[in-house]
Amino acid sequence: MEAEFVSRTKKKHEVEELQKLGTALVDLPPAQLEALALPAVLFAAVREAQRITSHEARRRQLQYIGKIMRKVDPKPVRAALAAVDGRSAAARAQQKRLESWRERLIGDDEALTAFAGAHPGADLQALRTVIRNARKEIAENKPPRAQRELFRLIREFNEPE
What we know:
The protein contains 8 helices and no strands. The chain has helices at 8-26, 30-34, 40-51, 55-71, 74-107, 110-118, 124-139, 145-158. The model has no long low-confidence stretch (mean pLDDT 88).
């Protein structure tokens, strides 16, 4: 049996893709990186790359990570990175929903009724007070302390129990 022919260009593209995957690992925060369960050699190389500040030294370290990635199965690493991206996308979507509720509650009196219908356990009296304070802050150009408090309350009522 003959081995399947792979062109140099294809090999280079595969190596570059693995190096990009390694760069994505380096860009992760340390807590997310530790949760990925990477091989010890790869984990140590990624942590070292995060520590390096010199451009050229970092470039060499990224190449080294690419070399290590050639010996590691990249599928689980890709899957773990996709899961991390999915969580952060879900968090951004949740943030947008909460901000939308806050803007609706501050701008429209009817929004409190809609919020109460969607969240039966919500403390309406506390919400009314914070909404009134937030509107007052906006009118007087004060720092958004009550607006932040309103956001916190909305987040508490939106968390699943």
